Amino acid sequence: MAPPSKRRKVDALRRQKPVEELTFSIDARQEYLTGFSKRKQARKEQAREQAIKEAKEEKIRDRKELREQRKVDLETHVAEVNKVLKEQDALARGKDPDDIDSDASDEFRGFNDSTTQPETAGEELPDDAEYVDEDKYTTVTVEAMDESEDEEAVAERAAAEKAKYAKIEAEKATELAEKRKKRPWLKDGQEKQKKKKFRYESKAERSLTRQKQKSKNSKAAKERRGKDK
């Protein structure tokens, strides 16, 4: 079989629009020759941005998988807890835990009030209870609430109690302040001596002090020489 004809390629070249003019750009050549580092840096920046984008997408996928896994674990844990509570409820009612239908639609709603009774149900709280500490002393009054009592009366009584305790605290603070004002280590009529404030001497004061010291030393030396004679 003969090889295919090359007329198609020749016809395609003939149909192309001929180039009218070829121009040489010195600026384009200069930019190409001096732009290797710039193009390399651009490729690095593009690769860095692509890596950051892929890392973000991977982190989003990991978070989604973690949320789904936590959701499954939570559902499993809740189912196990409900199963254990149902078994305990059955034991409290005197039934066999094996007879409980695990596929029942109703969920466990807690124990019955008849099964467990608090030991202190019949006990009455005292009207007043005192609490004593080394530094503090307080009295707590327990009163039964009257449902028919007006809210305004309750608010007024609470405000009165608050004012009473505030007055007591103010008296304690005043007493403590008076105790702090007293100074038992000082005698009657004696005032605390003020501490002398330290300050540096000026140049003139230092010169005068040295002159006084020199004159005092010279006078003492003359007296010693007079005694020796």
Describe the structure.
This protein has 229 residues and is mainly alpha-helical. The protein has 5 helices and 2 strands. A two-stranded antiparallel sheet has the order 1-2. A hairpin with a 4-residue loop joins strand 1 and strand 2. Residues 102-106 and 114-122 have low confidence and may be disordered. Residues 209-219 have a biased composition (Basic residues).
Separation of the first and last Cα atoms: 154 Å
Helix content: 55-70%
Sheet-strand content, in percent, reads: under 5%
Radius of gyration: 51 Å
Figure out the total of helices.
5
Uncertain residue ranges: 102-106, 114-122
Strand arrangement in the largest pleated sheet:
1-2
Tell me the major beta sheet. 2 strands, antiparallel
What spatial form do the alpha-carbon principal axes imply? flat
Structural class, from helix and strand content?
mainly alpha
Q: How many β-strand stretches?
A: 2
Q: SSE string, helix = H, strand = E?
A: HHHEEHH
Overall pLDDT: 75
- For this structure, the quaternary state is single chain
